[in-house]
Every structure is written in structure tokens, then in C-alpha cells.
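thought: fold this chain, then report.
action: predict
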Amino acid sequence: MTTGLGICPLEGWIGRFETCLLDKIYKMNTVQKGKSSEFLAISKLLKKGYSVFSSVAEDSLVDLVYMESSGKLQKAQVKSFYSGSKGEYHFKTIKNRTNSKIYSEIKYTKEFIDVFLAVDLLENEVYIIPVEFTEKYKSTISLSKIKENFIPI
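observation:
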């Protein structure tokens, strides 16, 4: 990430670039963060030479499918990291749904997806996380845990 003082290219005020970027990301609503994350993930996969197929439906359990150079298809759910209560960044391994005022949670499993594409918008990094890795976690995984076990694509 670019550091130092300067004019914030996103907002036009003078300050630290990191603060400018954080401010812009925090002002995004969940749909904007989700779409930004999906586009970054798609871009990274395309740069690796993968073919990428995107879902049209917003509430699908699968955000995209990509084909590796071997021809293997991977069903992926794209998740953005968010700031937790203690300042640690996490991504959710569940899908929250509210239908007719009834709240439910769906745990992503191998039945639905093959991998998570965990996106760190602050660092422009995407991690491919096999869904099996997430099974030992109840509903969230920290960015630090991901960085201990995976490298960005």
C-alpha cells in the first residue's frame, strides 16, 4: 500500500494516503464492498490465466466459477475482510439471510462451494482458501490466521 502524506486522490483532502483509503473503504456500503471484492478477485484470477464465470444473482451461494489451467472447475464464494470488535480483520464463513422477517444462517460447506476467495481491499490481496480449511471455525476467520496459512494470488 502507498504510504506518506499527500493529497487524497479519492477525496481531495491532504493527509496520509492510508487514512484516505481506509476512509473510502469504510464509506462503502456492503454491496459496494462486495462488488469491489468480486472485481478484484476476478482481475487476479484472470491475470493468473484462469477462465472466470460470474453469477448473475446477488443471493447465490456461488459468486463465481473459475477454471484452472488444468481444466479443473472451482466454485467460489468471494468474501471481504471486515474490522471486528477488537480491531482484527475477519471474513465470514456463513451466509446471513433474512426472508419474511426470519433470520437464518447458512454455513458454507463443500456441498455448496470449493473455495473462498478472501479479499483484503486495503492491500489489494486475494487469498484462495479451500472450504475444508474453514470447517473448524464457527462463523469467522481472522486475516492473521489466513496470512499464517496462505499466500495471496
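thought: worth noting. The two ends are 16 Å apart (CA to CA).
final: C-alpha cells above.
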